[in-house]
Amino acid sequence: MVFFGYVAQNYICLLPHPALRFAAWAAYTYVQGLFGTGLWVLAHECGHGAFSDHTWVNDTVGWILHSYWFVPYFSWKFSHGKHHKATGHMDRDMVFVPHTKESFMKKHHAHSLEEIASDSPLYSLGHLLGQQLGGWIMYLFTNVTGQKVADSAWGMNHFNPNSAIFEKRDYWYIVMSDIGVLTQALVVYTWYKHFGAFNVLMHWAIPYIYVNHWLVFITFLQHSDPKMPHYEAHQWNFARGAAATIDREFGFVGKHIFHDIIETHVLHHYCSRIPFYNAREASEAIKKVMGHHYQHSDESMWVSLWKSARQCQFVEGDNGVLMYRNVNGFGVDPKKKS
Questions:
Q1: Which residues pair with 229 in a beta bridge?
Q2: Alpha-carbon span 12 to 20, nearest angstrom
Q3: Are the CB atoms for 97 and 147 separated by under 8 Å?
Q4: What is residue 156's predicted lDDT score, i.e. its pLDDT?
Q5: GO terms for molecular function, please (predicted)?
């Protein structure tokens, strides 16, 4: 990132035409967003204790890297840990918890599915744009798509040491997370005062938007797919929950920049302490054990994004195994997954 930043700052201005300079800055911010996401993934490794054998190294590196992208490191570490302990559990999972048919209709103030307009492609597109641009920020501030166990958004806020997300023993770690984010905010403000808005926009703000987009893009598709089950308490166990994730393919970027977080996510839910550079080998081993329970897709992730947005609107089932449906009735029969 430093190298590309140096090249962009010193050489894009030498291009002879405004259109060329615009294209170069656009390409630069896109690439920096990719590498910035790679840094985010390394901080994610730190949160799981997979970056180093030493806790203090993991937490120091993770705190620095996540704070750079305005992520409260320990806050996310604790809530994400709960997600791993209850993946696919309708009452305990911490993120991408789907609506039931009843809560979906209540959200849309409808008495029947026929009244709901969210089967419209235009609605789906608008929802996707909002999710990709603001989903991560909304998650940090309101725990959107997670459990709602507090009366207000502030009570589910990742920056609030008294949030219902955390335990009392976590209090000062949340404060440390906030200090990291506030320190980075001061850095960005100082950056702006010395080098101007354009410099901050190109080298940090637009890559920051890209990082947020890629983060939601990756995690949504790891946990949302028309054939993926969710479980009520009496049907859930850890092995079932970990299998309710899916590996996908994202080519060169997924393997070399995103550190295989897309391609080896099923393994990650069974053993999150395995570092990314051993994850492909370990994934091959668990595939043999999981057999047909292992889920993988080599479909274009952009196609999958649209498909999941259109078909994964709520879950339904009367046997404790809930499958995705949409208002048009498309989806897997829950009884076939029992």
A1: 323
A2: 8
A3: yes
A4: 87
A5: oxidoreductase activity
In three state form, how does the secondary structure of the chain look?
Answer: CHHHHHHHHHHHHHCCCHHHHHHHHHHHHHHHHHHHHHHHHHHHHHHCCCCCCCHHHHHHHHHHHHHHCCCCHHHHHHHHHHHHHCCCECCCCCCCCCCEHHHHHHHCCCCCHHHCCCCCHHHHHHHHHHHHHHHHHHHHHHCCCCCCCCCCCHHHCCCCCCCCCCCHHHHHHHHHHHHHHHHHHHHHHHHHHHHCHHHHHHHHHHHHHHHHHHHHHHHHHHHCCCCCEEECCCCCCHHHHHHCCCEECCHHHHHHHCCCCCCCHHHHHHCCCCCHHHHHHHHHHHHHHHHHHCCEECCCHHHHHHHHHHHCCEEECCCCEEEEECCCCCECCHHHHC
CB 30 within 8 A of CB 210: yes
Length of the chain: 338
| Cα 254 from Cα 62, distance rounded (Å) | 20
Using one digit for the tens of pLDDT, what is the confidence trace for 90-118?
999 999 999 998 888 887 776 666 566 65
Range of 1-15, 17-31, 322-336 with top mean pLDDT: 17-31
Residues contacting residue 93 through CB under 8 Å, at least 6 positions apart? 83, 86, 87, 146, 147, 230, 241
Name the residue among 79, 1, 62, 44 with its Cα closest to residue 259: 44
